[in-house]
Amino acid sequence: MSAGAALLAVFVVAGCTDDPATPASNQTPPTPTVAVPTAAPPAANIKLGPTGPSTAPNCDGVPIPVGTDPQQVIGANPTAKTFCFAKGLHRITHALHPEAGITLASSEGAVLSGSVELTGWQQDQQHWVVRGALPAAYKLKGKCEDEKTNPCQPGEQVFLAGKHLTRVMALDQLKLGTFFGDYKANAVYLADDPTGKDVEMSRTQTAIEAAAPDVTIAGLTIEHFASKPQGGALQVGPGWKVTANEVRWNHAVGIMVIDGDQTVVSGNTVADNGQLGIGQYSSEGVKLTGNLVTRNNTDGFWIADWESGGIKSTRSSGEVSGNDIVANRGIGMWSDIAEFDRRITSNRIRDNAADGIRYEISYQATIEQNVVEGNGFGTGRGSGPSLWDGGGINVNTSSGVTVAGNLVKHNRNGIAIQSRTRGDGPRGKYVLKDIVIEANQVVMDAKTASTGVVENKESPAGDGAIRFSRNSYLIGDKQAERFAYRGQTMTWSQWQAAGFDQDSVSS
């Protein structure tokens, strides 16, 4: 048991109540006889095992040698079901379209790259320049943290000796560790001397696109693709199995499931992608399990509120379980817009810049047995300490949501429940109702603002819409205002007097 779990067990088993010297008029209800959680969820004591290509099974099939066009190899073997990429770097110049039922895999350490080599550098005063490598200017989209120059929108990334360089938007901003792409002049500028070093630029947008169902992708490293915002370097379709891959350093989304019902994405390492680790759109019954999703949003997408960070799902359903979602520059796990029958269970969601879990304008979800720790301390526009800015777990204008058995520890806010005016969805108006917050352990230290409910005037939370029950809180000073409801901050006693957590305990 971790130190945090042990501490929680101690304070709950002890049946922490208010000081007996407190005047009777201010005392909270007596220690409840109903069960409250006495141990952290199992996810607190489980570490994610190995992920990525080292865990892939042996690949036995038609070989795809380095330097060949994989699509031609696939086309030349119409009866084959398994194709094995040879060890080495495969430069992909156009998206692959696997046929139904086939496997694209490697057990030898194959790397699929969407980059081109940049050579022929010339010194230009204090800078270095290469010309003719950029594509023609194209329509841009995406919400950036910097909304004045929008550096996150262009897709090409530059890597110097394997190191990702940061884009600047003007030549006079160039410094060591950055690059400037001048699309009008078709020129790429560096401040670093590239002499004798490998310089690559992502150019191809997508490695593999969904053109048929029931495809398996295993054991591949997929990197350096210039994917467009909201687009994936690996685009996944219905019935696909995506397992034991490493998807890294792509401009937008690493793995994107689109219209991919019943797909399984498991055991992958999804790291350092420019916008988001894993995306899911319009896909039912998807399982995202046992993945390491870390350090995504390297290219400056908006941290607080635009699909940056770990995992984002929209208009979909399914299971997100057993993942380690850590240190992403955005939200850890975000369900948004008409999600239904969603299960977010047994994940470790830690140190993400925005909310740990956000469930927004959606229906019917179970969020349980997760460890949600150290989230919400990112800086940037839209970030802040109020419950409107989210929390370890944030439920926003949704219905039928149960949040149970989670350890919510040392986040910017604990559990934030929000009621806003958000319009209608496919299963009725988006409203906050039938929310159950039960049997969670919430640790709010000095850095944590509060737990509670916020609502706008047009959409007040109805009586009985939210139930807090059988939770345990570690809050330190009982007189500190660590809770909030209807525009007021509250002490523990006032929170209970408002009708919440009357069978819960605090210490």
Automatic annotation (TrEMBL):
Residues 41-63 are annotated as: Disordered. It comes from the Bacteria. SUPFAM superfamilies: Pectin lyase-like. Keywords: Repeat, Ubl conjugation pathway. SMART domains: PbH1. Pathway: Protein modification; protein ubiquitination. The keyword Repeat applies. This is Parallel beta-helix repeat protein. NCBIfam families: para_beta_helix (TIGR03804). Residues 240-386 form the Right handed beta helix domain.
